[in-house]
Structures are given as C-alpha cells and as structure tokens.
Amino acid sequence: MEKFPDRNSFTIYYGNDCYGRGTYGGGKFDVYKALDEIHNYPFSVAIFGQAFTWESESDSQDLKKFFANEDKFWHGVQKESVH
Q1: Residue numbers of the domain that contains 54
Q2: Could you tell me the pTM of the whole model?
Q3: Is the pLDDT of residue 8 over 80?
Q4: CB 38 within 8 A of CB 45
Q5: Which residues, 6 or more positions from 4, have their beta carbon under 8 angstroms from its beta carbon?
Q6: Residue 32, CB half-sphere, CA atoms under 13 Å: how many?
C-alpha cells in the first residue's frame, strides 16, 4: 500500500457470488455468512449476481414470490417473537 498512499485496505474488495459459485457461505440466501465473516477484516465487499432471486428462485409470473425472495435476500428471515 505504500506505493499507493491514497489507498487503504478498504479499496480491496472481496467478491461474493450470490449463485454460490465457489464462494464462502454458499451464496443464495446464505450470502450473509460471507458478509459477516468479511466484516471482521478491513475490506470492502462487492456482491455479484444478486439477480438470482429473479433468475432462479422466482416464477417469472409470480411477482409476489419474487418480492418475498428479494426481501428475504436483502433483509434476512425475520423470526417471530414468542410471547
């Protein structure tokens, strides 16, 4: 990094493939596993293939399922609290 004083470790990106092609955590709805791990290091993350929720997980005629998968991908599964 001394050759590039205007750069720091956050200019190094860990790439994660949402389809799980050789990536830590297996991709798909488990991308968060890789993100949780990389959070322990001073790097940035690039997410590739986030369209998998449309291309492989949803019926192109079922927008309700697509949006549910999108929400699940970006926000995770919300567990209901038990009272």
Answers
A1: 9-75
A2: 0.68
A3: no
A4: yes
A5: none
A6: 8
Q: What's the total number of domains in the chain?
A: 1
Whether residue 78 has pLDDT greater than 50: yes
Q: How far is CA 57 from CA 1, 6, 31, 70, in A?
A: 41, 41, 15, 10
| Run of H or E including 55 | helix 52-55
Per-residue pLDDT reduced to its tens digit, 19-75: 888 888 888 888 888 888 888 988 888 888 888 888 876 666 788 888 888 888 888
Residue 18 covered by a domain: yes
CA distance 60 to 45: 29
Task: Confirm whether 44 is domain-assigned.
Answer: yes
